[in-house]
Write a structure and sequence with these properties.
Bound molecules: zinc ion
Number of helices: 8
Radius of gyration: 19 Å
Largest sheet: 3 strands, antiparallel
CATH superfamily of the largest domain: Recombination protein O, C-terminal domain
Protein backbone atom coordinates (compact mmCIF):
# COMPACT_ATOMS: atom_id res chain seq x y z
CA UNK A 1 0.00 0.00 0.00
CA UNK A 2 1.31 3.45 -0.90
CA UNK A 3 -0.04 5.73 1.84
CA UNK A 4 -1.03 9.19 0.64
CA UNK A 5 0.36 8.58 -2.85
CA UNK A 6 -2.45 10.49 -4.54
CA UNK A 7 -1.84 13.65 -2.51
CA UNK A 8 -0.33 16.51 -4.51
CA UNK A 9 2.71 16.77 -2.28
CA UNK A 10 3.38 13.06 -1.90
CA UNK A 11 6.90 12.08 -2.99
CA UNK A 12 5.37 8.86 -4.35
CA UNK A 13 3.04 10.62 -6.74
CA UNK A 14 5.42 11.23 -9.64
CA UNK A 15 7.46 8.09 -9.09
CA UNK A 16 4.42 5.81 -9.33
CA UNK A 17 3.61 6.61 -12.98
CA UNK A 18 2.65 3.33 -14.65
CA UNK A 19 4.91 1.24 -16.90
CA UNK A 20 8.21 2.24 -15.35
CA UNK A 21 10.66 -0.12 -13.71
CA UNK A 22 10.84 0.72 -10.00
CA UNK A 23 13.14 -0.09 -7.14
CA UNK A 24 10.90 -0.17 -4.10
CA UNK A 25 11.34 -0.73 -0.41
CA UNK A 26 8.45 -1.57 1.85
CA UNK A 27 7.64 -2.45 5.42
CA UNK A 28 6.02 -5.90 5.52
CA UNK A 29 2.50 -5.90 6.92
CA UNK A 30 0.98 -8.53 9.16
CA UNK A 31 -1.27 -9.35 6.21
CA UNK A 32 -1.33 -8.26 2.57
CA UNK A 33 1.31 -6.30 0.77
CA UNK A 34 2.78 -4.11 3.51
CA UNK A 35 3.49 -0.41 3.24
CA UNK A 36 5.63 1.36 0.67
CA UNK A 37 8.46 3.38 2.22
CA UNK A 38 10.71 4.33 -0.71
CA UNK A 39 10.68 4.32 -4.53
CA UNK A 40 13.41 4.87 -7.03
CA UNK A 41 12.00 5.26 -10.53
CA UNK A 42 14.07 3.72 -13.29
CA UNK A 43 13.64 3.24 -17.05
CA UNK A 44 10.33 3.35 -18.90
CA UNK A 45 9.32 -0.12 -20.03
CA UNK A 46 7.45 0.74 -23.23
CA UNK A 47 7.57 3.31 -26.02
CA UNK A 48 5.01 6.09 -25.79
CA UNK A 49 2.68 4.67 -28.48
CA UNK A 50 2.28 1.39 -26.61
CA UNK A 51 1.20 2.84 -23.24
CA UNK A 52 -2.46 1.93 -23.66
CA UNK A 53 -1.59 -1.62 -24.71
CA UNK A 54 0.75 -1.88 -21.74
CA UNK A 55 -2.00 -0.87 -19.32
CA UNK A 56 -4.40 -3.36 -20.91
CA UNK A 57 -1.78 -6.05 -20.48
CA UNK A 58 -1.46 -5.18 -16.78
CA UNK A 59 -5.25 -5.39 -16.43
CA UNK A 60 -5.22 -8.91 -17.89
CA UNK A 61 -2.24 -9.85 -15.70
CA UNK A 62 -4.05 -8.72 -12.55
CA UNK A 63 -6.76 -11.26 -13.38
CA UNK A 64 -4.30 -14.02 -14.21
CA UNK A 65 -2.14 -13.53 -11.13
CA UNK A 66 -4.11 -12.76 -8.00
CA UNK A 67 -2.82 -10.71 -5.07
CA UNK A 68 -0.64 -12.86 -2.84
CA UNK A 69 0.52 -15.01 -5.76
CA UNK A 70 4.33 -14.77 -5.93
CA UNK A 71 4.20 -15.37 -9.69
CA UNK A 72 3.45 -12.80 -12.33
CA UNK A 73 6.09 -10.13 -12.08
CA UNK A 74 8.70 -11.78 -14.29
CA UNK A 75 6.03 -13.02 -16.65
CA UNK A 76 4.59 -9.54 -17.16
CA UNK A 77 8.06 -8.08 -17.66
CA UNK A 78 8.82 -10.70 -20.29
CA UNK A 79 5.52 -10.03 -22.08
CA UNK A 80 6.09 -6.26 -22.03
CA UNK A 81 9.58 -6.82 -23.46
CA UNK A 82 8.06 -8.66 -26.42
CA UNK A 83 5.68 -5.83 -27.26
CA UNK A 84 8.56 -3.59 -28.33
CA UNK A 85 9.62 -6.00 -31.05
CA UNK A 86 6.36 -6.75 -32.83
CA UNK A 87 4.29 -4.68 -35.23
CA UNK A 88 2.13 -2.30 -33.16
CA UNK A 89 -1.04 -3.89 -34.58
CA UNK A 90 -0.27 -7.24 -32.95
CA UNK A 91 1.75 -6.15 -29.88
CA UNK A 92 -1.08 -6.60 -27.36
CA UNK A 93 -2.05 -9.99 -28.83
CA UNK A 94 1.53 -11.22 -28.64
CA UNK A 95 1.93 -10.02 -25.05
CA UNK A 96 -1.36 -11.49 -23.81
CA UNK A 97 -0.68 -14.77 -25.59
CA UNK A 98 2.74 -14.88 -23.98
CA UNK A 99 1.16 -14.45 -20.54
CA UNK A 100 -1.43 -17.15 -21.27
CA UNK A 101 1.34 -19.43 -22.46
CA UNK A 102 3.51 -18.81 -19.38
CA UNK A 103 0.43 -19.55 -17.27
CA UNK A 104 0.01 -22.88 -19.06
CA UNK A 105 -3.40 -21.93 -20.44
CA UNK A 106 -2.50 -22.20 -24.13
CA UNK A 107 -0.19 -24.43 -26.16
CA UNK A 108 1.87 -23.75 -29.26
CA UNK A 109 0.80 -23.52 -32.90
CA UNK A 110 2.80 -26.56 -34.01
CA UNK A 111 0.88 -29.24 -32.13
CA UNK A 112 -2.69 -30.36 -31.61
CA UNK A 113 -3.59 -29.51 -28.00
CA UNK A 114 -5.98 -32.47 -27.84
CA UNK A 115 -3.89 -35.43 -29.03
CA UNK A 116 -0.46 -33.78 -28.78
CA UNK A 117 0.52 -34.76 -32.35
CA UNK A 118 2.78 -32.42 -34.33
CA UNK A 119 0.85 -30.91 -37.24
CA UNK A 120 2.64 -30.25 -40.56
CA UNK A 121 3.21 -26.53 -41.00
CA UNK A 122 1.50 -26.57 -44.40
CA UNK A 123 -1.77 -27.70 -42.82
CA UNK A 124 -4.62 -25.63 -41.46
CA UNK A 125 -5.90 -26.40 -37.96
CA UNK A 126 -9.16 -25.78 -36.12
CA UNK A 127 -10.15 -23.81 -33.06
CA UNK A 128 -12.36 -26.35 -31.35
CA UNK A 129 -13.76 -26.21 -27.80
CA UNK A 130 -11.28 -23.48 -26.79
CA UNK A 131 -8.35 -25.52 -28.07
CA UNK A 132 -6.23 -25.67 -31.20
CA UNK A 133 -7.00 -29.01 -32.81
CA UNK A 134 -5.82 -31.15 -35.73
CA UNK A 135 -8.41 -32.23 -38.30
CA UNK A 136 -8.89 -35.59 -36.58
CA UNK A 137 -9.62 -34.00 -33.20
CA UNK A 138 -12.13 -31.34 -34.04
CA UNK A 139 -13.83 -28.92 -36.39
CA UNK A 140 -14.31 -25.23 -35.71
CA UNK A 141 -12.93 -21.86 -36.73
CA UNK A 142 -10.20 -22.55 -39.32
CA UNK A 143 -6.69 -21.49 -38.34
CA UNK A 144 -4.86 -21.32 -41.67
CA UNK A 145 -1.30 -22.53 -42.21
CA UNK A 146 -0.31 -18.92 -42.93
CA UNK A 147 -1.78 -17.71 -39.64
CA UNK A 148 0.00 -20.46 -37.69
CA UNK A 149 3.27 -19.51 -39.35
CA UNK A 150 2.71 -15.77 -38.89
CA UNK A 151 1.93 -16.06 -35.18
CA UNK A 152 4.75 -18.50 -34.50
CA UNK A 153 7.22 -16.11 -36.16
CA UNK A 154 6.32 -13.38 -33.67
CA UNK A 155 7.48 -15.62 -30.81
CA UNK A 156 10.50 -17.39 -32.25
CA UNK A 157 12.73 -14.54 -33.32
CA UNK A 158 12.07 -10.91 -32.57
CA UNK A 159 13.78 -9.74 -35.78
CA UNK A 160 11.71 -12.05 -37.94
CA UNK A 161 8.59 -11.30 -35.92
CA UNK A 162 8.91 -7.59 -36.46
CA UNK A 163 8.68 -8.13 -40.22
CA UNK A 164 5.65 -10.36 -40.16
CA UNK A 165 2.38 -8.47 -40.21
CA UNK A 166 -0.72 -10.52 -39.58
CA UNK A 167 -3.72 -9.85 -41.79
CA UNK A 168 -6.82 -8.27 -40.31
CA UNK A 169 -8.62 -11.59 -40.58
CA UNK A 170 -5.82 -13.44 -38.77
CA UNK A 171 -5.90 -10.83 -36.00
CA UNK A 172 -9.67 -11.25 -35.71
CA UNK A 173 -9.27 -15.02 -35.35
CA UNK A 174 -6.50 -14.58 -32.79
CA UNK A 175 -8.66 -12.09 -30.91
CA UNK A 176 -11.45 -14.64 -30.66
CA UNK A 177 -9.06 -17.30 -29.42
CA UNK A 178 -7.79 -14.95 -26.71
CA UNK A 179 -11.33 -13.96 -25.73
CA UNK A 180 -12.37 -17.62 -25.55
CA UNK A 181 -9.44 -18.59 -23.33
CA UNK A 182 -9.94 -15.62 -20.99
CA UNK A 183 -13.69 -16.22 -20.84
CA UNK A 184 -13.16 -19.89 -20.06
CA UNK A 185 -11.22 -18.80 -16.98
CA UNK A 186 -13.78 -16.21 -15.97
CA UNK A 187 -11.75 -13.22 -17.18
CA UNK A 188 -12.81 -10.43 -19.50
CA UNK A 189 -10.79 -9.62 -22.61
CA UNK A 190 -9.58 -6.00 -22.73
CA UNK A 191 -11.90 -3.77 -24.71
CA UNK A 192 -9.15 -2.42 -26.97
CA UNK A 193 -8.90 -5.85 -28.54
CA UNK A 194 -12.51 -5.54 -29.67
CA UNK A 195 -12.37 -1.95 -30.84
CA UNK A 196 -9.18 -1.98 -32.85
CA UNK A 197 -10.55 -4.27 -35.52
CA UNK A 198 -14.18 -3.25 -35.67
ZN1 LIG B 1 -5.33 -34.01 -32.55
Amino acid sequence: MARGARRAKSPFRAALAPLYALDISWRPGRTGMGTLVDIDRREKLLDEGLDLDGLELCAVASGLFQEGDPHGYEEVLEAIGMMQHCPTSSALYVAIWKLLSLSGWVGDFGHCWHCGEAVDEAMAMNWHAYQLACHACGKGMVISAGMRKGITAQFIDSDVGSNVRLSKNDLLCWQRMIQDVLKQHGLKAPSIINEELS
